[in-house]
Each structure stands twice: as structure tokens, then as C-alpha cells.
Amino acid sequence: MLDKINGWIDETLANHTSERIGCECMATDFEGYYPPAFLADSFYVIVPQLPKPDFPELRQLGFGDLIDTDFNGITYKNTYFVKQGKERNLNLHFHELVHVLQWQTLGAEAFMIRYMDEILKYGYEDAPLEKMAFALEAHFMEGGAPFDIGAHVRQKI
Ligand SMILES: [Zn+2]
After folding, report:
1. Of 83, 107, 137, 143, which is least packed with CB atoms within 10 Å of its CB?
2. 2, exposed or middle or buried, with CB in 10 Å at 0-12, 13-18, 19+?
């Protein structure tokens, strides 16, 4: 199953390579939070509909809600997809970049296992990887003092 999802992700990312935008364009907005080198290796793609691996096996396992929920963004490895019309929402970018760090810190396979486990166990809102992203997003949104988000994620994950 993981191989199938991983293959789907790589294919999805390959299909959007030409449309992706480098996150270094937000280096000033995120100064002190995300280092320029990290932003230079992170990307986003604006899409009308977020791509999701809609496999019957995943629905059978209990991921139907996650597949059907209309999110504003979703992260796969170092790239996240943003729903058209939401691309100016810096808080959303900030949130998805936390997920990029989580993918990077855990590695793709461990991230997928943990994220899926958490969703089934706690639900989307209470999944610890999501709670971490929402808490950091809230800190940024409220104008909290900048700190190294990467170091935070590596320490707390
Ligand atoms: Zn999230």
C-alpha cells in the first residue's frame, strides 16, 4: 500500500514539475522562521482541485473522509498543492511548510505511516502532526516572535 501511495505521489509531483513555484519567493515573509536554503528546496503548485490518492483500499481502511474533505492545501514530500484562490494566504503556506519539514525529518515512508496512523487513531483535527502544524501556524498568524521552525520540528516530532 505504501509503495502504491509513494508511486502515486512521485507521479503526481512529476506531472506538476513545470507548474511548481519555489518557496524562496516568501523568504522575506518567513524571515527568521524558515531559512532561505530550505525555502529554495520547497515548492508549491496552485491547482483547482487538490490531488489525492483516491484508492478503494484507502477508503476501505477508513480514509474516505480525508479523501473527500475539501482542504485548502496538501503536502507531498517537498511540494504542497494550494487550492486556486488561496495562494495569497501566507498562513496556509506557513502550515504546509511545517508538513514539508515533517516529511523531511521523518523520511517519506515513516511520515506516511505515522500520518495515516494518527488520522485513524485521533482524527484529522487531533492528529499530533496536524496539531503541530496548526500550533506553529497560529504562532505565525498572531505575529509571534520568529524562531527556527525546522529545529523545533526536529526536536518535537
Ligand atoms: Zn496540515
Report:
1. 143
2. exposed
pLDDT digits (tens, 9 = 90+) for 64-121: 999 999 999 999 999 999 999 999 999 999 999 999 999 999 999 999 999 999 999 9
Q: From the CA of 60, how far away is ligand 1's center (Å)? A: 22
pTM, two decimal places: 0.97
The alpha carbon of 99 and the centre of ligand 1 are apart by a number of angstroms equal to: 7
- Cell representation of residue 21: 513555484
Looking at the DSSP bridge assignments, the partners of residue 80 are 44, 75
- The string of pLDDT tens digits covering residues 126-145 is 999 999 999 999 999 999 99
**How many angstroms does the Cα of residue 27 sit away from the middle of ligand 1?**
21
Gap from CA of 38 to ligand 1 centroid (Å): 18
Give per-residue burial for 27-46: e unless 16+ CB within 10 Å, then b: beebeebbeeebbeebbbbe
Grid cell listed for 111: 511520515
